[in-house]
Write a structure and sequence with these properties.
This protein has a domain of 91 residues: Thrombin, subunit H, CATH 2.40.10. 5% of the residues lie in helices and 35% in strands. Strands 2-3-4-7-6-5 form a 6-stranded antiparallel beta barrel. The longest helix is centred in the last third of the chain and has 7 residues. The chain has 139 residues and is mostly beta strands. It has 1 helix and 7 strands.
């Protein structure tokens, strides 16, 4: 059996921003194919500065416009469906892309674009060393 030759970090280098596994409660709204409005409460599986991967029972198609509301902050963003997959459960996984990049929407800090796990700073952090400007809290 022939296996396709895939270089280990081939796909990671194509990412526009870091992805983080994070469950955020959302309210997703849009219009069904017939034009009727819908809204569904769901959560994210993965987030990035450019959008998210969510589970959505409502049938959507690539290119469909949606609005998502972050239920913890009540902030809303327009987005577009960029991929739909059956997923590992009975609920399809839907990739959505924000109409404009918004890393602050998820309330997490993403690494800078030039960050690498091979950088000297990343190696210091993984070795257990504490940076000089770090705040250490003892319990």
């Amino acid at each position: 059996m022939n296996k396709p030759h895939i270089q280990p970090h081939q796909y990671a280098q194509q990412r526009r921003s870091q992805r983080i596994l994070l469950s955020v409660s959302l309210l997703v709204s849009g219009k069904q194919a017939g034009g009727a409005p819908f809204s569904e409460r769901t959560h994210t599986l993965v987030v990035s500065a450019h959008g998210a991967l969510i589970q959505l029972q409502e049938r959507v198609v690539i290119g469909q416009k949606l609005r998502i509301k972050h239920l913890a902050t009540n902030e809303e963003m327009n987005c577009t469906v960029v991929d739909v997959n059956p997923g590992n459960s009975s609920i399809p996984e839907v990739a959505v892309e924000f109409s404009e990049v918004c890393p602050r929407f998820w309330r997490v800090s993403f690494p800078p674009a030039d960050w690498s796990s091979r950088s000297a700073e990343a190696k210091r952090m993984s070795s257990g060393a504490v940076p000089a400007n770090a705040v250490v809290v003892k319990k």
